[in-house]
Design goal:
mainly alpha; globular
């Protein structure tokens, strides 16, 4: 009698989310100083740019190190890790759940024994956008706090330095300050551009999955795995494409979350910048992404929309490529964790 092979164990949406979150934290931690530098470049008001200050990624990193030491390059690290884990977990969970459900629905309509063709690029983009939107709604408050911690409190408009006075920049301290200055809804600053930016991971993962399926199809190999270096290359190209397409809204979202919007609004109307821990919008509302983009266009033209894009691409490509390269390894670990947890639960139930 022939020996029956054991069925291949597949990750549940929970397992896929855990693997994605762990991989996201790993890739973000590796390039974290780049993340701090690119966030500060993006947060500078438009009237502070182009005045002889070198805003290249390396120059900003060296300036932060000189003024604040090594800890300056890791400002907001804890909040950013929490934000990365929660965002990646939510995204991978919703993406895996939605994609698996969609594929099962399509498969049920096929004749028995038929093989489902690769999903179209449009379908990949739509599934990614839905997953990204759901993840944004649940995780953006942590993103707002992390951004403000990274940027800090400039000494003067256009400065990259953080003042020396004793201020509460802890996670809860920044959260309290946001509520005092913007109201409870301030914790969701940037939600509108954030929802628009759901096309970023949608483009990234859609392009990655599409190219991956084409490569595996061309190989004629039954395996669904690629080597780490090929995954790195495809991930880098996919993230570069997504970043170029969506960058203006990335920059606008950072300025909304990092106080730059209020600073520019006050300068635009020749008013005094509102003080800390006081409500900022007694007679006005917080400016939106379109207002910021219009202001930048007026002052700097189309080029202003892409100020700091080199830093964004460098950080994003390295982080995303590391994520893709390590994702399959983290999937193995997540599966091992789930198997161990299941066996532990089973042993306890019989004890």
């Amino acid at each position: 009698m022939p020996t029956q092979s054991k069925p291949v164990q597949q990750l549940t949406p929970f397992g896929a989310a855990l693997a994605g979150a762990l991989g996201g934290c790993f890739s973000t931690a590796v390039v974290y100083p780049l993340d701090v530098a690119k966030t500060r470049i993006q947060a500078l008001p438009s009237d502070a740019k182009g005045k002889g200050k070198d805003l290249s990624l390396i120059s900003v990193i060296l300036r932060i190190y000189k003024l604040e030491g090594i800890l300056g390059l890791y400002r907001g690290f804890g909040a950013t890790m929490l934000n990365t884990f929660s965002m990646q977990y939510a995204y991978f969970f919703f993406y895996s759940f939605v994609r698996t459900s969609y594929i099962k629905r399509l498969t049920s309509k096929l004749p028995p024994g038929s093989k489902l063709p690769p999903l179209s690029t449009a379908a990949e983009l739509l599934l990614g956008a839905v997953a990204g939107a759901l993840a944004q709604i649940f995780t953006i408050p942590v993103s707002v706090i992390a951004t403000r911690q990274q940027v800090g409190r400039p000494v003067r408009p256009g400065s990259l330095a953080v003042p020396a006075e004793d201020v509460d920049d802890s996670f809860l301290g920044v959260a309290r300050e946001i509520v005092e200055e913007e109201g409870v809804t301030g914790l969701w600053l940037g939600i509108k551009p954030g929802l628009v930016l759901t096309v970023n991971p949608a483009i990234t993962y859609g392009a990655f999955e599409r190219v991956k399926s084409l490569i595996l199809l061309a190989r004629g190999d039954a395996s669904t795995k690629m080597g780490p270096w090929l995954s790195f290359l495809i991930g880098a190209l996919s993230k570069t494409l997504a970043t170029v397409v969506t960058y203006p809204y990335i920059m606008a979202k950072v300025r909304i979350q990092a106080r730059s919007a209020d600073a520019e609004e006050a300068a635009e109307h020749k008013e005094k910048m509102p003080g800390q821990h006081t409500f900022h919008h007694q007679h006005t509302k917080h400016v939106g992404a379109l207002d910021i983009l219009a202001r930048v266009w007026k002052r700097e033209g189309f080029v202003g929309w892409y100020q700091g894009m080199q830093a964004q691409i460098t950080k994003a490509v390295l982080s995303q490529a590391l994520l893709f390269m390590s994702k399959e390894q983290f999937e193995h670990w997540a599966l091992a964790i789930m198997i161990f947890a299941a066996r532990l639960s089973s042993s306890q139930s019989f004890s």
